[in-house]
Amino acid sequence: MEIRKIEPRDFVKVAQLENENWTLASTPHVMDSSAEKIIGKIMTGTTYFLAVENDEILGILDYGPRHKSEFGRHTVTFGIMTAQEARGKGVATTLINFFIDFAKKEGFKKITIQVMGSNPAALKLYNKLGFVEEGRLKKEFFIDGEYIDDCILAFYLDKSLM
User: Fold this and answer.
1) Which one in 17, 79, 80, 158 has a CA-CA gap of 20 to 30 Å to 5?
2) What's residue 26's pLDDT?
3) How far apart are CA 7 and CA 49, in angstroms?
4) Which candidate, 44, 50, 100, places its Cα nearest to that of 68?
């Protein structure tokens, strides 16, 4: 499996994968991704890494600044999605570990991600990789008749900040 940055030839396929795999079970947003929207996100500071094998995109990690304020530049946040057929095969773990190494080299001190409390598999993975829960917004979302917590997780690249 190769991890690489997104290329223009990937935009349509990434949008398709986002629309197919980002569901209300994993995000509180209704996806309406398109190549044009991906280009727009890239133009405003989002960067994409792809997990690719045999020219097939298995996973997507996008990242950008957590805060617009200059005082939060040490913190970066990300989102991650694994194609349905690639789940449980280490794709997300590989992407996240790649991103942790990349973020260290870029000089970030802290990585954050928000995870829905209704996604125990994701919470378990992040915990296994060393993320800690820093906050929980109780009953933050109301989806399909149920209230769902929004969990804020962090990974400290600079352990002295813990």
Assistant:
1) 158
2) 75
3) 10
4) 44
Angle at 5 between CA 15 and CA 3, to 5 degrees: 100
* Domains of the chain in sequence order: 2-161 (3.40.630.30)
CA distances from 96 to 122, 146, 149 (A): 12, 29, 23
pLDDT digits (tens, 9 = 90+) for 75-118: 999 999 999 899 999 999 999 999 999 999 999 999 999 999 99
Half-sphere CA count of 31, side-chain side, radius 13 A: 19
Rounded-to-integer distance, Cα 103 and Cα 157, Å? 8
Lowest mean pLDDT among 20-29, 59-68, 117-126, 140-149: 20-29
To the question of pTM greater than 0.85 for the whole model, the response is yes
CA 83 – CA 18 distance, rounded (Å): 9
